[in-house]
Amino acid sequence: MISAETVLLVGIIALTLWETTLTPRLTPAYVCASGSDKDSIMGDDLMQVVMTLTALMSLAFLCFIACIMVFGIWMLKNVLEDEVKRRGRDQTPQKSPTLEIRDQVGSKQVTSSELVPLDERLRNLTTQLTTAPPQVGAPVAKDAATASTTSSFVSSGNGHSPSSDSVISRTTYNVVSTSVTRTTTLAYTPAQYLQALRRLLAQISDARSGMELEDIVPVEEAGRQTYDASIKTLDQKVWDIQENLTDLESQKDDVILQANQEEAANIRSQMELLLQEWSRLSDAHSTKLKKWHKAMDHWRTLDSGSKEITSWLETAETKLSVARNSHSLDEANSLFKELEVHLRQQQNNVTRMNSAGEEILQSVSNLNGDKLREKLELINHRWKVLCAEVMARQRRTKESSVEPFEFTNEMDELFSWIDEAENILASSLRPDIPYLEALLEKVKDRADEIPQRQAHLVSINSSGAALVQSPKLTDEDRNNVHRDIDHLNDGWTKPQYLL
């Protein structure tokens, strides 16, 4: 509510503004009116009206501002009163245990001398529960345990000794209850921790034994599936061992703090041995997994490669049979050319299949590898027979279809080599050591090339003999071929003899 003092203050401010704004401005108007004409009076009246309206508007604005300030002060006052009341409630003192006791017993007579020993016992019990060491031995750690103590007393009109325990033990009135929190964090006692380490060590030893027993990869598909399942089981066992080891290792320091000197030494030595065995197990497990994955890759390569090559061999052998019995030379040549192209394409697959088979045969026993070895030998035999027949046909076709242009190029190349050799042999000698050394080096180079050039000469003679049988050549062409071959053989004799 707005008080009367506030309203009075606003009124005084308004009157003061009225006097200071209007009164000084009215007098000059009427003074001027007595000494001037009518027009001057009207102008002064108009000016006076404008100034009056301006003053009234200013007064209204000031009143509005004053009302806002009064309302704000009133709101602030209410907020401050509520805050003071709230803080007063929060700061109300709690009753002490002694006052609670007095309130509970009501009209019964309780003397201060009776309450003193009770308070002392309550404080001692609270201190003992707060500072008590955590109990170790539970298999699962508990985060909090609550201990509650209740004391009671009875008072009679005759009065009893305040220090008497019998009086407190016969009480029928609740006095006070208090809760004390204590924390236990250990899941093992030192003895239990040592037993857990030994059990884990036995599991590691058992896992390593299992790895050594299953080191041979089966050849049969069913055996490989069974072996793969055992690998997965072993992998899970190693994973469980690692989790248990991590858990035990994280509790080692806390357990050692609760252990005596002998138990602490045993724990350290047992943990060191356990870590060493785990390192061996982990290495063996990693090696075994890598070996198994590599073996599976080889088996996949072998299985897919053998199936693909076998299927292709069946198709190729059928085409080869058709080419052999075909009465059309063009059809036979087309089939042989197709087989020749496919042979080049399948060569890499055969190589990969044989390489994977060799890797597998090295990792299996001789008894288990016999069947696989026979399978590979059969595929390779069929491949070699097909290759031999296709390549033989290719060679015969090439020999029977010598092109004159290729024959001429081969002869020209050998003629050029013979001319260079004759020029080297006909070089003049002079007493110049570097010159003689360079000349000797050229002679040696030509001498080293003689076997290769000899084979080249034999090939040219064979091609020339086939070329003169071609029906495409005229008699004049045949005579030219014979003359060139004879000239080439005569020219070859001299460098061969001298070198």
Automatic annotation (TrEMBL):
Coiled coil spans: 231-277
Gene3D superfamilies for the chain: 1.20.58.60
Keywords: Coiled coil, Membrane, Repeat, Transmembrane, Transmembrane helix
Start and end residues of each stretch annotated as Disordered: 86-112
Source domain of life: Eukaryota
Record Pfam families: Spectrin (PF00435)
Membrane-crossing residue ranges in chain numbering: 53-76
InterPro entries: Spectrin/alpha-actinin (IPR018159), Spectrin_repeat (IPR002017)
PANTHER family for this protein: SPECTRIN/FILAMIN RELATED CYTOSKELETAL PROTEIN (PTHR11915)
Protein name: KASH domain-containing protein
Source organism of this protein record: Biomphalaria glabrata (Bloodfluke planorb)
